[in-house]
Design a protein that fits this description.
With 219 residues, the protein is mainly alpha-helical. It has one domain: Heme Oxygenase, Chain A, CATH 1.20.910.10. It is globular and about 45 Å long. The chain binds 5-(aminomethyl)-2-methylpyrimidin-4-amine. The site of 5-(aminomethyl)-2-methylpyrimidin-4-amine has 8 residues, from helix 4, helix 8 and helix 11.
Length: 219
């Protein structure tokens, strides 16, 4: 069994919980409270800044040119294509790019981005691969599930379209191969990879919950 399959098996119950989360179900059918979605847009924008940083650091750490090219290409596509979706959703809410950039991170967003950036600086390339994998495969699987249960087009359809697009699917496919190659090349890292994968996967679940409850600091 490949490394990515092993990790996905270890995270099966977290995947199921994500697909059943009310944020996911209500986004799919278009009934999600716009305030919860606005919270997601703002927090995810701040998340993606650090997510792009994770790919950039991984790209700088990689030894071979093909891996560097791919990781730095994904960093660019996050900053460009993916964050453009957020900028256009934000514009619908009358939120400027400067306001998005100035959004204060909620506790879950702090926890998730700190974990990713810390892994980027302190972890091995194998751990970084495992930490970023749930963010890619998780969004693709959740969006595929949304596309299956969505009955008609609505205000959130561009979200489903972006995360089920051929471009995003190809990036996820590459990340899966990256995880598999790290798993094979560094057997001594497998335990650390599984721990990083599970932490990211659980934080993915918590991120839906953060947006749905419009989590703040209460201060
Ligand atoms: C929290 C989170 N995780 C993953 C993705 C997909 N890049 C995202 N936009 N936001």
């Amino acid at each position: 069994m490949s490394g990515s399959q092993r990790l996905l098996e270890a995270g099966a119950e977290i995947w199921a919980a994500q697909k059943a989360h009310p944020f996911v179900v209500e986004l799919a059918d278009g009934t999600l409270d716009p305030a919860a979605f606005e919270h997601w847009v703002r927090q995810d924008y701040r998340y993606l800044q650090d997510y792009a940083r994770l790919f950039a650091i991984a790209g700088a750490t990689a030894r071979d040119e093909a891996t560097m090219t791919e990781l730095l290409g994904i960093a660019h596509s996050v900053l460009d294509t993916e964050m453009d979706l957020h900028r256009s959703f934000a514009a619908d809410y009358g939120i400027s790019r400067a306001e998005l950039e100035a959004t204060e991170k909620a506790p879950t967003c702090v926890a998730y981005t700190n974990f990713l950036v810390r892994t980027a600086y302190e972890g091995s390339l194998a751990e970084i691969a495992a930490a970023l994998y749930p963010c890619m495969q998780g969004y693709l699987d959740v969006a595929d599930h949304m596309a299956e249960i969505a009955e008609e087009e609505h205000r959130y359809t561009p979200f489903i379209e972006l995360y089920t697009s051929d471009e995003f699917r190809a990036e996820v496919e590459w990340c899966r191969g990256f995880v598999d190659r790290c798993w094979e090349a560094a057997p001594g890292e497998r335990e650390a990879m599984e721990a990083a994968f599970r932490t990211s996967a659980k934080l993915e679940y918590r991120f839906w919950e953060m947006a749905y409850t419009q989590e703040g600091w209460g201060l």
